[in-house]
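2024-03-11 09:14:02 DEBUG pipeline.ingest accepted 1 chain
2024-03-11 09:14:02 DEBUG pipeline.ingest length=232
2024-03-11 09:14:03 DEBUG pipeline.predict start
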Amino acid sequence: YTCWEWLANIGAPSALVAGAALASFFELKEDLKPTASMQPFERQAKKLVRLLLLSAFALEIGCLYVSTVTGTMLLGNADMNAVGRGINAIGLSPMGVMMRELEFEYLFTRATFFTGLLSWLSSMALFLFAEASAVTSAALDVNERATRHIRLACGSALVALIIMMVAFYNNHLVGYAHLGSVLSRFAVLVVKRYVLCWPPRILPIVAVVPGASAVYHSVRAFFPAKPQQSKA
């Protein structure tokens, strides 16, 4: 039951971050449109901001979904034990039980919640830096120059916050050395569960197509093909 409580409690902040990321995306939609007059850094940065905001939304929704489904499964664990499909809920701590019996679900929830939060904060910092780089300081009046410095200060503060959050996260992990070990272990579990399995699972194979399309178009967004000039 304590494992269910942990999964239920993480759903609320993940929904909050998902809503904030989606609201930020639509609020900044017009400001994030690339134009020919933008400097190269500003143009590429604003593309990355849009990608980070939608990634944050998707990661937090994934966290909310997996935590809800796993929590529902745990509430029916006694019935599943009756047919030999339940988990051993006895352990020294709830996190110990999760890591032993449901490591994939545990890491998915932790990794997606934290990386989604970092993606949202990073997108806000990057947007502030992109806005500050739009024009040089010498071309601004006193008030506009002050606004530029405020954007740089806020962006830098967010970067400092992100670094300290990662440091705090690494120092409070149970069973893993740092964030990198969490993500690498999660990647191993994904491969074992969806790639190195027999018989092959149909839906993960189907998901490869839209996944590859997302990667391809994301790369093309940052490195678009130059239009061919028609011969006279």
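2024-03-11 09:14:41 DEBUG pipeline.report DSSP finds eight helices and no strands in the chain.
2024-03-11 09:14:41 DEBUG pipeline.predict end
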